[in-house]
Structure formats: structure tokens, C-alpha cells
Specification:
The complex is a heterodimer of chains A (484) and B (333). Chain A has 484 residues and is an alpha+beta fold. Chain A folds into 2 domains: 191 residues, Up-down Bundle (Multidrug efflux transporter AcrB transmembrane fold), CATH 1.20.1640.10; 239 residues, 2-Layer Sandwich (Gyrase A, domain 2). Helices cover 53% and strands 17% of the residues of chain A. In chain A, a hairpin with a 7-residue loop joins β9 and β10. The relative contact order of chain A is 0.12. Chain B folds into 2 domains: 215 residues, Multidrug efflux transporter AcrB transmembrane fold; 74 residues, Alpha-Beta Plaits. In chain B, α7 packs antiparallel against α10. Chain B is built from 10 helices and 6 strands, in the order ααβαβαββαβααβααα. Classes of the chains: A alpha+beta (484), B alpha+beta (333). Chains A and B meet through β4, α4, β14, α9 and α10 of A and α5, β5, α6, α8 and α9 of B. β14 of chain A pairs antiparallel with β5 of chain B, so a sheet runs across the interface.
């Protein structure tokens, strides 16, 4: 085992350990130095790499919250399913962001671009359905003169419903201004029926004011609203001001552009000092009002925060107790090598936790089970080596030769057994979803780290410690030496 | 410390073996020897005595299915202020027309199963139940699973288990192809490991079928956690078997004068201590999880306990004897 005991490997392992301890521990040092509470949320806690924060991502079964699987139905014919799915995800993302929960997750799933997974921490299933199930209706109006209107944004004018319906909008996307410059615009596309009506509307509006149509000429505008009702228009004197507020600030207005030229082909752009963000926001809102697909909740789970916290506490306590028992047992049974193996287990725990943080692995109850199993496998690799060591000692080898033979001969069994576990877990990572997938990910990571800790770390520690005379006694090694 | 510098060697390579035999005295025959191979039929019988009732129960009674496999909605409700009686809750649920079943756990929480309710309907339902029993229901957790999703979970899991088993078989055949007999022998090793694995899977699912259906215990429920447990047992069982087989592979070369039966028996004896010690440590961890872990993990811990004890048993008393039987029926070379 020349390679395993060489200095480059040792330096890599020590470097890995130091980095892990930094990732695991620096937050606590920061809290201590700044007299902050040891637990709980602290903003800007290190390690923080350029705004990239490292911390445990707890699954909803541990943190409490709601997970939903939405089935999309009623896909508009002739449109790319993946695009429609992505657009729906953008819409849901925007709505969910408004809830202000930590790390909301909206992601594509389903074999045919037909499902969306939503995970919301600290929200009940009913609240989640309110937000997600709510349907906005895109309403497109023109403005007509009305002498009775004295209030509202344009005294003397009120909106008028048109024959444009929400489903006529096929898509709205944020794009760079095609006429050049760094500005952003929102490009829209109507279907055939919509194109015909919009052509009439835009021509009428254009003719009413000409291309110079400005604030003074409301008739030059075609306006996009969400959820504007005929009631609002009938009471425009009272409802108008509120309705004309931007949708995101509690009103119903999305955009109120004036027509610069008749739009006859069904596609055009809305321009007007957009940043990339505001153009995307408007595009998402327009799409949201025209969301063609239906969303049905096919699966949901909602774990109360108390139950989640209770599960974490009890399971962690049980796992720690189990770990202590294992350590005591290893030391009692294998003496010094057992102690070294326990130290290697600490290395294993430190590195694994750091990987969970750095790779943003979401920890669930099933994931914790995967960790516990991989601890078992880490211990097993050591037991294999130590049993073999005792055997080689009984056969009358010197200590050095026995350690070397033990590691070398135990290796094929360790390699093969861990490889088959890795095969199983990798299949599961790709084939399964939900809790089984979480289990497979932590198991695969755990097995990989345990291989390093049980072979490289234990072996190195043993090689170093065996240089000392006090370590080379039968009592320390827990062996009965045979007569060679 | 000159001997630390030896490279890792493939144990089956003859040159290495020659070197081994020069440096190492012949393995002394252990004085206490249990002859497992000659008594293999007894051990097969013990396994069958446990597995057959399980299979009968699986076929005739099926499983107590968890919500994620059955489809429907499930609520864990507690009433922190004013604990109602089970009968009161049952009456309230019956009045809702959602085909509900009510169970009460030892700590007073009510578990209610209904047909599929979406979150809004679920909220109406729990509010109604709370009002009817004159208390406020606090929802510890609720779950809704549509029928399609449930069916998909089951099929994906089955495919995954089959795919994993097939890959493990090929991996083992590949790893053991160098033993005398080549690939044919490799598949005998792989196949025996797979049979031992099936033994553990059937034993575990059978016991859970009996627990859930014959005794009607909630801990025997089959859900996603149980599936995870089965997969873990698959991994562990193969793990254990490989350790024994690896020793057989080594001994076939080192002790070429022994018969195959003797080699197998010797290898089992040499690895038994390790198998039992490892399983014992894992059983300790699982016992603490079973006794002190959260309720959600109890069934999971029990499944793992059964599976791992069975895995250890099968690796010692089934896998290797099976290999011997197989080699007799289909001699290599």
C-alpha cells in the first residue's frame, strides 16, 4: 500500500479535513467572536463564498412545510411542451416568491414535461393551494370617452372590454430591444383569431391619436389588465384609481402602452425603459393571465413544523446514541486500532457534513437513514481489516507485515461490497423520486467518504502510531500472538 | 518497515500466491469447527419455515398499504386543548362522506384516512371535524396521493430493484470470473448471492405482510420508507455475502488441496466473526433508532432490523451452501 501511505495522499487528506472543518466550524467561530447566539438564524454567517452561503438544506419532513406535485393538463396544441412547462414554472415561481418563504422550490418533473414539483417551507397545504391554484385572467381593453367619468386616471375616459380573450395570447417573452441599444422589451405573440382582432384595435387606436399618442390621448392605448371586471368599469369613478395601480402593488394594471403603429401580424413588442428584470416580470405576468394549462394537485404532503422538529431531535439523538455505542464497542473489542477507527469516523462525519453543505444536499429523514447505513459500512470496512489483522498475527507475522497483509487482503471484499452498494444507490438516484432518492444520494456520498476514511485514514493513523513502542504491545493491539 | 511498501496485488494471480505461500505458514485448521455445509439442509429448512408463511400471507392477505402506495389522503390530527374520544372523532368523520377511517395512536393523535382530498377540501374537512368534536384540530401532518402517482411509485421501485439486482449479478460474475471455472463459475457466485438476497427480501416482506394483515399492526405498513428499507437490506445482504465469497475466492487459490466443500466451510468460519460483529454494531444503532427514534422511523428501523439479521443469517447459512449445491449440480471444468 505504497500509495496510500505516501505523503501526497496524506497532504490531500489533511487538506480535505481542514477544508471540511472550516466549512463545518467557521460559522460557530463567527458566532462566538461576535457574541451571537449559538443556534438560530444569523444573516451573513460564514462560510460565505461571494454571496454563496453554505448551510444545511433541510427537507420539508424535517423543517415543516408543504410539498405538492402538480399535473399539467390541457396543453395548447402546436406549442413545445417543454416551453409551456417552463413558462408555467416561471409563473408559479413569481407567485410563490410573493409568499416570502425561505428557499421556495418550483421545478420540472414528469416524463413528458407534464408535472411540476413545488416545495414550500413553513406553509400549509391549503395556503399553498390558494397561491398556486389561483388563476389570473388577462383582460385587454381600449379606452373610450365617457362624460360621466370624473375620477380615475384619465377623467373623461374609461376602459372598454374588447373581444380579445386571454387564451389568444400565445406567449410573452422578455427580449433585447431589436432596434438596438441595451434596453429590454416584451415581445408578444397572438394566435390567428387574436391577431385579427388586435389588428382592428390597434388600427383604431392609432387612427384616434396618430403615432404621437401621448398621455393626453387615452384612446391611443390598448391596455393589459389582470382580473379587471365589468363591475370595475361600471364604477370607474370610484374603482378606477385603485385598479390603475400596478398589479404587483395591489392594483390590476399590467401595462398601458400606446400604439405607435397598427399591429396587423399578431406579434409585436411593448417597449418603455424596461430593465431585464422588469421586462421579465411583465412577460411573466402577461403569461400568467393567459396560462393555458390546467394544474391539478395529484400529490401533496404537509408536515407541521413541530412534528418536523420533533423528528429531527429524536432521530439525531438516536443516531448519536448509536454512534457512541459503536465507538465504545470498537474500542473495547479492538483496543488501539478501534480507537483509531473511531477517530477515522470523526473524519468521516466532518467531511460528510461539509459535503452536504457544499453540494446543497437536501437532508430528509430517509437521507439520515442513508447516513446511518453508511456509518455501518464504514465500521464494517474497519472490522474486516482488524479481524484480518488478528488472524495474520495469530499466523505469526510481525506487526508491520500483519497490518500490511490485513489491509491488502481485506481490500477486495471492501471494494466489491461497496461497489455493489454504489451500483444500487446510483440506480436509485436516477430512477426514483422523493424520499428514496434522498436516501440514495446520502448513501452514495456516505459510502464514497467511508471508503476514504476506513482505508486511507485508519491505515495511515495505524502506520504512524505503530512507530511508537508503547503501541506495539499485544494488549494495545488486542491480539493473541501465535508462535511462528 | 520495509514491508509497508508492497503494492496491492490481485489475490488470484499465481505469482502472488506463490509468494504468499512462501511467507505465510499454512492456515492451521481451526480446532472448533462447525460443519455448516454438511448440515445445509437444516439451514435451508429454517429459512423456508419463516419464508413460506410469509409468502402465503402475501398471496392470500396482501399488504397493509401506506398512503403513498394506496392513494388517498391521510391526516395526523391532534387536539391539544380538549381531547375528544375516538368514537366522537369517528362520528364526525363519518358525517363528512369522505369514506374515512380513524385510528388512534398511543399518544392520543388521530390518524384519519380518506378518499383523495385536495388541500382546500382537506382544510374544510379538518375544520369540520374540529368543530363537530368541539375542539380545534391541529394538523401534525397531512398527505394526499393520487392513484396514478401511487402506481408509478410502485413500478419505478420494482424496476429499480430488478435493475440493481441484475447489475449486481453481472458485477459479481465479472469480479469472480478469475476463479477456476471462469465466467460460468462467476455467475454461480453472483447467482448464489442473488438467491440469498431474494431470501432476505421475501423474508422481510413476508414478515411485514403478516404483521400488517394477520396481526393488523400499523407498524407493518408498506410505504416509501419500507421500500427504502428493502433497498438497504439488498445492499447489506450482498455486502455480507461478498465478504464470504471473497474469502472463498482467496482460499480456493491458497488452499488448493482442500475440496470445494472444505474451502467453503473454512471461509465461512474465517469470516463469521466479522459478519456477526458488523451486524451486531448495525443492530445496536438500529435498536436505538427503533426504541428512541421518532415515530416516523419506527417501522423503518424494524424493517432494517429484520432484514439485517436475515441478511447475516443468509450470508452464512444460505449463500455459501447454495453455491456448493449449485456447483454439484453444474460442475465446472
Amino acid at each position: 500500500m505504497q500509495l496510500v501511505l505516501s505523503w501526497p495522499i496524506r497532504i490531500i487528506v489533511i487538506g480535505l479535513l481542514l477544508f471540511s472543518l472550516f466549512v463545518d466550524g467557521s460559522g460557530y467561530v463567527y458566532r462566538f467572536v461576535n457574541h451571537l447566539p449559538v443556534t438560530g438564524n444569523v444573516a451573513g454567517l460564514p462560510p460565505n463564498f461571494g454571496g454563496w452561503q453554505l448551510y444545511f438544506h433541510r427537507g420539508l419532513d424535517l423543517s415543516g412545510g408543504t410539498q405538492l406535485t402538480l399535473q399539467m393538463g390541457n396543453f395548447p396544441p402546436g406549442q413545445d411542451r417543454a416551453t409551456v412547462q417552463q413558462r408555467t414554472i416561471d409563473i408559479l415561481q413569481k407567485r410563490v416568491n410573493a409568499l416570502g418563504t425561505a428557499e421556495p422550490l418550483v421545478q420540472a418533473s414528469g416524463s413528458n414535461h407534464d408535472r411540476i414539483d413545488v416545495q414550500l417551507a413553513g406553509v400549509t397545504a391549503a395556503q399553498a393551494q390558494q397561491v398556486i391554484g389561483h388563476r389570473d385572467q388577462l383582460v385587454i381593453t381600449t379606452w373610450v370617452p365617457d362624460q360621466s367619468i370624473t375620477g380615475g386616471p384619465f377623467p373623461g375616459y374609461k376602459p372598454q372590454m374588447t373581444q380579445m380573450t386571454a387564451d389568444m395570447l400565445q406567449s410573452a417573452t422578455a427580449e433585447l430591444d431589436p432596434s438596438g441599444g441595451a434596453g429590454w422589451v416584451v415581445a408578444f405573440q397572438y394566435n390567428g383569431a387574436g391577431a385579427g382582432i388586435f389588428s382592428q384595435l390597434s388600427t383604431t387606436a392609432y387612427n384616434a391619436c396618430g403615432s404621437g399618442g401621448a398621455a393626453s390621448c387615452p384612446q391611443g392605448r390598448v391596455t393589459n389588465w389582470l382580473d379587471l371586471t365589468q363591475d370595475d368599469i361600471n364604477n370607474w369613478n370610484t374603482a378606477g384609481v385603485q385598479a390603475y395601480q400596478p398589479f404587483d402593488s395591489g392594483g390590476k394594471l399590467l401595462s398601458d402602452p400606446y400604439i405607435q403603429s397598427p399591429i396587423t401580424g399578431g406579434n409585436g413588442i411593448i417597449s418603455g425603459n424596461f430593465s431585464q428584470q422588469s421586462a421579465q416580470d411583465l412577460a411573466t405576468s402577461l403569461n400568467s393571465g393567459a396560462l393555458p394549462v390546467s394544474l391539478t394537485i395529484v400529490q401533496s404532503s404537509d408536515v407541521g413544523a413541530t412534528l418536523g422538529a420533533d423528528s429531527v431531535r429524536r432521530s439525531l439523538a438516536a443516531a448519536l446514541l448509536g454512534l457512541v455505542i459503536v465507538v465504545v464497542f470498537m474500542i473495547a473489542f479492538y483496543r488501539l486500532p478501534g480507537l483509531l477507527a473511531s477517530i477515522a469516523l470523526l473524519f468521516y462525519a466532518g467531511v460528510l457534513l461539509a459535503i452536504f453543505k457544499a453540494a446543497s444536499v437536501t437532508l430528509t429523514l430517509a437521507g439520515l437513514a442513508g447516513v446511518i447505513l453508511s456509518v455501518g459500512m464504514a465500521v464494517d470496512a474497519n472490522v474486516l481489516i482488524f479481524e484480518r489483522f488478528k488472524e495474520e498475527m495469530r499466523a505469526g507475522r510481525t506487526i508491520g507485515a500483519a497490518v500490511e497483509a490485513a489491509v491488502r487482503r481485506a481490500w477486495p471484499a471492501i471494494r466489491d461490497s461497496n461497489t455493489s452498494t454504489l451500483i444500487t444507490s446510483i440506480i436509485l438516484i436516477f430512477a426514483s423520486t422523493g424520499s428514496v432518492k434522498g436516501f440514495a444520494i446520502t448513501l452514495a456520498l456516505g459510502v464514497a467518504v467511508s471508503l476514504v476514511s476506513s482505508i486511507i485514514v485508519t491505515h495511515n493513523l495505524l502506520a504512524i502510531v505503530l512507530n511508537f513502542g508503547w503501541a506495539r504491545t499485544d494488549g494495545m493491539l488486542g491480539v493473541a500472538r501465535g508462535r511462528a | 518497515m520495509a514491508c509497508w511498501g508492497l503494492p496491492v496485488a490481485e489475490l488470484s494471480r499465481p505469482s502472488d500466491v506463490a509468494a504468499d505461500e512462501a511467507t505465510k505458514p499454512k492456515v492451521a485448521a481451526p480446532t472448533r469447527r462447525l460443519d455448516i455445509i454438511s448440515h445445509r439442509n437444516i439451514f435451508f429448512l429454517i429459512s423456508l419455515l419463516i419464508i413460506i408463511p410469509g409468502i402465503v400471507s402475501m398471496v392470500t392477505r396482501g399488504f397493509l398499504l401506506g398512503i403513498d402506495f394506496q392513494g388517498g389522503s391521510e391526516f395526523f390530527l391532534s387536539f391539544p386543548h380538549n381531547q375528544p374520544s375516538l368514537a366522537a372523532v369517528e362520528a364526525a368523520v363519518a358525517g363528512e362522506g369522505v369514506n374515512g377511517q380513524v385510528q388512534q395512536t398511543s399518544n392520543g393523535t388521530f390518524i384519519i384516512r380518506t378518499s383523495v382530498l385536495d388541500p382546500n377540501q382537506a382544510k374544510t374537512f379538518t375544520d369540520d371535524v374540529g368543530r363537530k368534536v368541539g375542539s380545534t384540530a391541529s394538523i401534525d401532518s397531512q398527505q394526499q396521493v393520487g392513484g396514478t402517482i401511487a402506481a408509478e411509485t410502485v413500478t419505478t421501485a420494482l424496476y429499480a430493484i430488478v435493475a440493481a439486482s441484475a447489475l449486481i449479478l453481472f458485477y459479481l460474475a465479472f469480479r469472480f470470473r478469475r476463479v477456476p471455472g471462469g465466467w460460468q463459475s462467476g455467475f454461480q457466485f453472483g447467482g448464489s448471492a442473488l438467491l440469498a438476497l431474494l431470501h432476505d427480501v421475501f423474508l422481510l416482506t413476508g414478515i411485514f405482510s403478516i404483521l400488517g394483515r394477520v396481526f393488523g399492526l400499523r407498524i407493518g405498513e408498506i410505504d416509501a420508507f419500507f421500500l427504502t428499507a428493502v433497498l438497504t437490506v439488498v445492499g447489506f445482504s450482498v455486502h455480507d455475502t461478498i465478504v464470504v465469497f471473497d474469502r472463498i475466492r482467496e482460499n480456493m487459490v491458497v488452499s488448493s488441496r482442500l475440496t470445494f466443500e472444505q474451502v467453503v466451510n473454512l471461509s465461512i468460519m474465517q469470516t463469521a466473526a466479522r459478519s456477526i460483529i458488523t451486524s451486531f454494531t448495525v443492530v445496536l444503532v438500529l435498536l436505538s433508532l427503533f426504541l428512541f427514534g421518532g415515530d416516523t422511523l419506527k417501522g423503518f428501523a424494524l424493517a432494517l432490523l429484520i432484514g439485517i439479521i436475515s441478511g447475516t443469517y443468509s450470508s452464512i447459512f444460505n449463500a455459501s451452501p447454495l453455491l456448493v449445491v449449485w456447483r454439484r449440480l453444474q460442475p465446472v471444468r
